[in-house]
Amino acid sequence: MGKKSLSFILITLSLLVSSVASAQRTTIRLSPEAKVTLLTCSPGDELYSVFGHSAIRVKDPLLGLDTVFNYGTFDFSDPNFYTNFVRGKLNYVLSVAEYRHFEYDYFMEGRWIWEQELNINPQEKQYLFDSLIINHLPENRYYLYDFFFDNCATRIRDIFVEAIDREILFDYQVLDQGQSFRELLMPYLTEKPWARLGINLALGMPADKTATPWDYMFLPDHMMAVFEHARFKSGNDISGFTPGSRVILEGNELPRARFPYAPLWIFLIVLLVTITISYLDLQSKRLSWWYDRLLFGSVGLLGLLITFLWFGTDHQVTVRNLNILWAHPLHLVICLFLSDKWHRVFLRYYFGANLGLLVLLIISWPVLPQALPLMIIPLIIALVVRSALILTIFSQGSILTGAYRRGPASS
């Protein structure tokens, strides 16, 4: 039996063995030639991979061992996968795979892989390897994923700090400090304008909290940079955490967005259409309720999603979302009463209050505790225009005469 087959069997057996109190250890003893490295993978083109990835590689040529420990996998076969994903209850899992399979996946996606060897002694390598094996036991391998505070990168950062006995000194000067979590995400979404907009609309005030240097390492690129300049301290001895990083797989450049300002142009068109229809309505003293149902109904649906993410899920970063001030589900209810002259007094108060709220939102925009996406301003102005028009025509008494439009054709 070859060394490679033997090591594979040993790994399989060790992963199936249950823990025995605190003395639990793997049956695999790494040789002096073993290396433990941090792998950092470049962002991918798909949304789930756009922020990059991290993993740990353990390679022992004498044992024929070349294994990757990956905290960033999940189980699609889970019958509640999609429900748990939406509600923020999805369990991620620490998986173990041969490096060649791991590399092949990134080769097929055209992504880069950088490797940083840890400057640790054989005892530290063994203890770290044992800790990873214990983490992979069935009762330990699952964890509740949190994008900012408990993900594939932070798990690696934490196990390095906990499993390596020497103190790690971090040099945070390599980071552009003082940014919020939201600001840290935006560079990765430059070429994905719709994803950028969607994420900005979904994230609430917690995303605008200033991230500490320690928090920066939730992103693989930042963690690689921090560990590149980290040092070990043991008594009076200081040594580098890693001798440096090297490229072990070259990838391709990510595709550029064909229409990087597409959302802004769409909202500008909506504003232009709104102004045109509103001008015609003002001239005829009739309201195009069909357009108001379309405009306010669409915004109301967005408000319903924001409300669900806030109150109906466990996502901590989607709570206290100030986008609810302009996109709220009440618009959906109001759409049921539009063009009903029996509710004209209520509608007048509703759109008067909505107009005041929107104007106040625009005025206070620069000082809000949450960064709202600037590209939605034309859409908000469109809501202002229609609210003001409805309030104006109601105030003039035109609705009292029955001169209103229920659809594309006047009644």
Question: How would you describe this structure to a colleague?
Answer:
There is one protein chain. The chain contains 13 helices and ten strands. It has about 400 residues and is α+β, with helices and mostly antiparallel strands. It has two domains: about 5-175 and about 215-250, endopeptidase fold (from Nostoc punctiforme) (Alpha-Beta Complex); about 260-400, no CATH class. The strands form two sheets. Strands 6-4-3-2-1-5-10 form a seven-stranded antiparallel sheet. A three-stranded antiparallel sheet has the order 7-8-9, with no helix packed on it. α12 runs antiparallel to α13 (about 375-395). The relative contact order is 0.11.
Outline of the structure:
By secondary structure, the chain is of the alpha+beta class. The protein folds into 2 domains: 3-177 and 213-249, endopeptidase fold (from Nostoc punctiforme), CATH 3.90.1720; 262-401, no CATH class.
